[in-house]
Write a structure and sequence with these properties.
244 residues, 59% helix, mainly alpha
Length: 244
């Protein structure tokens, strides 16, 4: 059997394709483009890096004041939980020392540097800032435990202040980041005189905490700029001189 029914004039491939597209959705209605619900304008700022950095450092400082308030009510008993150099029981002080202070004056003297430098450290990335803080916390604590004076207890967030200071100063140079270099120069100009605190000073001042906090900041800047340094070396090694 040869031949067959020919395609009549009513056959329209474009029209059939349009009908198929229309009835391929439930109810035979054309698909509606999906839209994401608009966020209330009042919450727009919460996603900004500056807001997260400010909220985190302010929360940390408030926590320090709460701890000091509890310590004052308890007669200063919490201060004994600081770092006791070369004492096994004093190792736990590595964890607790930066959140303990020897009175309101001690805490208030640290408050403004903590707020400013902590904010700047966290501003470039909360996770990176927390990693830098963890490195500084550990290096400062271990160094103080190894080198502090016998029969002494070391407390205070100044180790973090010195660590954040050197981290902000050096991270831009390690990473080759111009914006961070400019921030570091500004911090050095405003707070650079604090670095004299890494030298032995009056009794009762933990210069060991200052010194190893500052060393921890340099180390954190070097470690956390590793990706940028490797990328810069790769870009330099990838440059091939073209023949003249």
């Amino acid at each position: 059997m040869t031949g067959g029914a020919g395609q009549g004039s009513s056959f329209d491939s474009d029209r059939i394709a349009a009908l198929r597209a229309r009835f391929s959705t439930p109810g035979g209605t054309p698909p509606v483009p999906a839209t994401s619900p608009a966020r209330p304008r009042g919450f727009a700022a919460t996603g900004q890096p500056w807001f997260r950095a400010a909220a985190l450092i302010c929360g940390f400082v408030v926590l320090l004041y709460v701890i000091e308030g509890v310590d004052q009510i308890g007669g200063g008993d919490l201060d004994a939980a600081g770092i006791e150099p070369r004492e096994v029981d004093g190792l736990s002080g590595i964890v607790w020392a930066p959140v303990l202070h020897g009175g309101w004056d001690h805490l208030m003297s640290n408050t403004l540097p903590l707020l400013i430098m902590g904010f700047l450290v966290l501003l470039s990335g909360v996770l990176r800032g927390l990693a830098a803080t963890g490195i500084i916390w550990l290096v400062a604590g271990v160094g103080t435990w190894l080198t502090g004076a016998d029969n002494s207890v070391h407390i205070g967030a100044s180790s973090l202040v010195f660590g954040w200071l050197t981290y902000l100063i050096c991270r831009g140079w390690f990473a080759g980041n111009v914006r961070h270099i400019m921030i570091g120069i500004g911090v050095l100009f405003v707070y650079g005189s604090l670095l004299w605190g890494v030298l032995p000073g009056p009794p009762g001042i933990s210069w060991q905490g200052h010194l190893f906090g500052a060393m921890g900041g340099v180390f954190a800047g070097w470690v956390l700029s590793g990706d940028a340094r490797r990328k810069r070396r790769g870009d330099q090694s990838g440059v091939i001189a073209s023949p003249r």
